[in-house]
Amino acid sequence: MRLDFLILADKAEAIGGKLYLMGGAFDRIGLAAIPGPAQFDVAIGVLVGYGETNFKHAFELRCEDPDGKVVLQGPQGMLEVGRPPGMAAGAEQRALLVFAGPFVFPAAGAYSWTLVLDGVLQPPTRFVVEQARPLIPVPPPSGG
Fold first, then answer.
1. 80 phi-psi bin (left φ>0, alpha ψ -120 to 50, beta other)
2. What is the per-residue pLDDT for 62?
């Protein structure tokens, strides 16, 4: 079992084996206040091998700072994928997971979401949290 993808999105849903994303694959999050909440979803695809189907597998999602310190503990649980009839020996299938925010970040800076599958740390997805810049109002054109 291994991570296929982990994507940040404004909105994500997994329905009927398909992933629906709006505003996905960004790597910068601007917050009005830090610390503060960020409203986004985390969409995950996990590839499950033929011999790994019909067994329960542990997963844990967490957000870490650059030093590997866990700053947000995400969901933990069990994942089980059945083997469909006619699946070829050695084939993989994708399981989809979506976790909805908001997620509260303690400070501006670099972070990474990491997924642990059956105790094995998967490659991280890195992103940056920064202070959002206020919008500067533009005066209307003067008539004349």
1. beta
2. 97
